[in-house]
Amino acid sequence: MLNINKIRKNTEEIIQRLKIRNFDGENIINELLNIDKQRKQAQAENDRLLAGQNQISKTIGELFKSGNKEEANKAREKTAELKNKIQENTHTIKDLEHKQTALLSEIPNIPHKTVPPGKSDEDNEEISRHGDITPPQVIKPHWDIIRDLDIIDFDLGNKITGAGFPVYKGKAAKLQRALISFFLDEGEKAEYQEVLPPLLVNEASGFGTGQLPDKDGQMYQIKEDNYFLIPTAEVPVTNIFRNTILKANQLPEKRMAYTPCFRREAGSWGSDVRGLNRLHQFDKVEIVRIEQPDFSYDALEEMKTHVSKLLEKLNLPYRIMRLCGGDLGFTSALTFDFEVYSAGQDKWLEVSSVSNFEDYQANRLKLRYRDPETNKPRTAHTLNGSALALPRIMAAIIENNFTGDAIVIPQVLHHYTGFKTIDKIKTN
RNA sequence: GGAGAGGUGGCCGAGUGGUUGAAGGCGCACGCCUGGAAAGCGUGUAUACGGUAUCCCCGUAUCGGGGGUUCGAAUCCCCCUCUCUCCGCCA
Predict the structure, then answer these.
(1) R_g over Cα of chain A
(2) Per-residue model confidence as pLDDT tens digits over A126-172
(3) CA-to-C1' distance for A426 and B37, Å?
(4) Which of A141, A295, A385, A392 is disulfide-compatible with A354, CB 3.0–4.6 A?
(5) By residue range, what is the domain housing residue A21?
């Protein structure tokens, strides 16, 4: 969430910049500032009262010590009214604080200056295109190929769980494992420390990275324990740093994690979403960075380069999109999407989303670092990116590398898979 | 799941109702000392909100979290939570 001080100081600018994401913040911000003012007044008043009370308590203590019980009891009587007022005031303050937090968490992050205006993904700005998109000799969508080769089984997943939970079989299962290993090894080369985090998170973590309170409908929930299945490793990995003050020389913190991700995808289950294009459970390697504010945009570039290299090594054609205001995630200041061209569908599939959240998540997380110059805590910047999400990579590999009766595995994966092609599973 | 013991600053640890935001130690920072270092000595060393936009300074809050008793709570009471030990169950 945004910092209230920042809003106080740059009210107009913030309202203007939020318009880029088609968010009209004028009313909510005015209300917020009004509440903030009340809150400050109430607190100043309460602090005065409390100071008075502390003073009296101290006096009473001294009186009792010196044996002057009469005077002490007199002073004691005086405090009743004060106490009432304080209680009332404290209530008011808490109430105002709650309202303030509630309003603050309704305001999305301020878009970076380079974010173009726009309404939907159609207005995203293509900033570069890489690789060859001439179609292969056989053009077939992956859902047909995987059915023909019998390597990924949706019906079976449907039987075990439900729609959107496919079963990968044989070489397809191993290809998944190969991709995960490949991504993690590349991440390790780029000095991301691997972590294997919990797949269930608590409410505080969900709030910290911004999934809660609003997007709880998109997460699977364990009601008995009030846990949530992670929609992305971003949640547990970023929350490693919740409520911490890092030393400046610890930064940047670079972490990565392979995890399954679980998404209910409520409301987005359209007819054009087929096969591996959208699943309730999928695998992903995520990279996360904690940075000093001055370096966070350099870090974002580095992450883009990292993702680009992965796609190039897999020999997949891709383009990089700068998300427009309308498509930008609630918590992000600037996001680049990586889309892979998948020949069988003649479609660009989003396989990675690389974002700088600036201090938006860090404010929620209370994630700070000690500024070496002032020696004061300062909010850090958080970033993350998929590197990479598996199913659509699988889809693109399957469609782009299909020869008519086999899928050719990209060379870079050979020593992970131990095979160079996937052919039809023999059924005896 | 049952029984018991605990949770105090970056860490260890004292503190069972009265200037205790908190002794002491370790660590860290700076200074003195030194040819340089170590040792020693000295000083400093939490966060948030508010007064005020900043520095200083001042006020308030915070001893796992929340609530209560009291003029006053780290200390007493209640609820929750987490950790440890033993038992049970278990991959």
Answers:
(1) 27
(2) 999 999 888 888 899 999 999 999 999 999 999 999 889 999 999 99
(3) 74
(4) A385
(5) 4-104
